[in-house]
Amino acid sequence: MYNSLIITNNIHSWVVSWMPAAVTGITEMIMIALAYLTLFAVLGLFLVLMERKVAAWFQLRIGPNRVGFFGMFQTIADALKLLSKELTGTDKADKFLYNLAPYFLIISSLMALAVFPFSQNLQAFDINIGIFFLIAISSIGVIGILLGGWSSNNKFALIGAMRSGVQTISYELSVGLSLLTMILLTGSLQLSEIIEVQKSGWLIVQGHIPAVIAFMIYMIAGTAETNRAPFDMVEAESELGAGFHTEYSGMKFAYFFLAEFINMFIIAAIGTTVFFGGWLSPFGITESIPWLGVFWFFLKAFALVFLMMWFRWTFPRLRVDQLLTLEWKYLLPINLFNIVLMAIIVWLNFTIQF
Amino acid sequence: MSYFSDIYHGIRTLLTGMGVTGKYFLHSRKGAITQQYPDNRDTLKMFERFRGEVVMPHDENNEHSCTGCQKCEIACPNGSIEIIWDRQVDPETGKKKKLIDKHIYHLGMCTQCGLCIDACPSDAIKWAQNFENAVYDRSQLTRVLNRPGSKVRAGVEE
Ligand code: SF4
Ligand code: SF4
User: Fold this and answer.
1) Does B100 fall in a domain?
2) How far apart are CA B58 and CA B66, in angstroms?
3) Where in the sequence is the domain holding B124, given as residue range(s)?
4) Could you read off the pLDDT of B55-86 as tens digits, one per residue?
């Protein structure tokens, strides 16, 4: 659980030096949790800024450029504004569930972050069923959406939440199956092990054709999982106001907003870890400097995030029936076929390895 | 077999779309259409078709080409134009002729529909490209388009 980077070792010995051994474990856990919380709140804010900038560039605009250098602090200012706003709610809302819903969403997405290996040994929790844990955790988020839509006593919110339920349940299947295809190659669910396997070539190269198909399916289904355009029927602005979070304001709205962006990052991070070698540098060019792994990891993850933004600003929104047709008639059969193909390739040792 | 060709066409058209937006993304640096308005106040030029307000151009001799035919007044759907005119003896020909005294334009009522400009037979009025039309008093929105002392250009007839 504890990692062997020098900095964490120093902190560990510093904590042990003034504390009884029994409570050091809890203290360190809390310290790590707080560090992650701050880091990913900042990351979420940065992603919002990135989305706005990228959207602007796609639409030949300039984007936020007033607050700070190139609008750097725009989202921080927005977050402060949201913090200071009144928390409103509807009459006859189910107050308990209404207040609970945002936390489901934000906590499930923050929990998922714990298992990613950001660099060699820089991993909060190296669980041996990593991928399984990620898939399980990312489906808890939808409960938050359903609760939020159900309890806020608003028809738009309810319709949005129900659509989200349909969508997430369908597309979870594709995410799971496409990851399963890659598990056939790695033979392990543990994320650090998966990266270890990729030292002889990233999985998307190792598994060539089926891996590329799996990656395409994963990106489509992953975009749908995060309820982003072109699959954003959950909050289709032109139809449903803001969808399931129509009735939320202030910080609770900010949680939903932040969770959406962190989820996007999680999808990109899973993609990075499983398909593109996680923190491994291309051709091992910086193998001697382990902390550069963080840089490679984020570079790859942000490239995938950019891809998802590119989708968003290119494609028009699907209708619900088209969405389900895409999943059940196209993605799922192709996926099942793809697993068989991958199994044959692994069986006959047709993988490409360096 | 249409199943597979559907997939192929789907992927191809999606990639085409991404190619188009990708091109825009790469060119956004040069081609941004955003005007950062108060900053570029001195250099900002409105495009030609922009409809700011109706003006009457005068040449260097303080002459305009409005004959006072009132066609713009009739064309205006909401009565933003009032023409005050008079029959006077033209000093050159010695005939009686309709001449404008005041061409009054109410910017506050104008909807920028352009019908008056289309209706004018002698192209005496046109659009100006200015857009900073805010004033502190409503009465400032009523403008007299012909300048004091101006007269109609010789040769412009009804
Ligand atoms: S632009 Fe239209 S509304 Fe304005 S003065 Fe001319 S005719 Fe009237
Ligand atoms: S502006 Fe044109 S249409 Fe109006 S009175 Fe003068 S000549 Fe006639």
Assistant:
1) yes
2) 10
3) 53-151
4) 999 988 888 888 888 899 999 999 999 999 88
